[in-house]
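<goal> How does this chain fold?
<sample>
Here is the protein in question

***
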Amino acid sequence: MRTVDWWRWGKDTAGRSPWARGRVLASLAVLTALLMAFHSVVPNSVGRLGSLLETFLPWLGLAVPLLLVLALLRRSAIALVALLLPGAVWGNLFGGMVLAEEDSGAHDIVAVQHNVSDENSDPEGTASALIEAAPDVVALEELTPSALSVYESALAADYPHHAVEGTVGLWSKYPLSDVRPVDIKPEGIPEGWNRGLRTTARTPRGDIAVYVAHLPSVRIRWNGLSSGWRDESAGLLGEAIAAEKLAKVILLGDLNSTLDDRGLDPVTERMDSAGRDFAFSWPEAFPVSRIDHVMTRSLVVTDTRTLPATGSDHLPIAADIRF
């Protein structure tokens, strides 16, 4: 029996045409498209699988080139056609981040968000790196007592106004007033845990309520995602923002998930965010997710980007904001 060269698309040795072979690959392509398009219907009741999927949702797109190679090796026409579906869904969800035009540069405020890490061995160098980005406000999380004095000293000349509550702080070129903690502590966490603050920044364009928050960490385990405390904390933060009386609000923080994760719905339903690229911020060595965020209400985020690495396991995030 004559064999078929790999580049030819006739029947294989079993007599199957390109439209009859590769149905498993085609099914996997359709499944990938369905998971991306309807991720919100994946249940969170068992292991918070829905949140786990949404945390890494853009990476599902890697299935497309993998399945493409397999489809070509299998010489499967039906699989190649099926791959158009996940490709189109991914492009609709995330293509704008890849193909967006360069930012026009029009903005009124530059904000920087950075989890500086409580194991950072070079807080002074970290502060210097953040100053180079020339932000107007800088939010820091995981401040330790020993590092706090270093940041206060290093940032004082450029940012004469600052507020600290627990392990989070804000440094600002604008005067700050009405500084107070924001209670985002879930039940079961010991007293003394304080990762939220709220203050008023008095800018030349009017007062802005600025929130800094560090939501509890999540863990990926054999039975799924452990995010109960994070979700509860997000609910408390959302309630605080909903009760905010000032119209203009900026939220800066390590929210320990992406904006696609339904666990952050209490926050994302009340705030807006935008970005010209994925701006993955964690982990610093090989960023796979943006869990650090700059969000606004009654203001516009025109650009979001990562800054060079510091001594932290997170990359800093900078955002341009327009009134």
Remarks:
- Residues 48 and 171 are 36 Å apart (CA to CA).
- The radius of gyration is 23 Å.
- The chain has a mean pLDDT of 90.
- Residues 84-99 form the longest helix (16 residues).
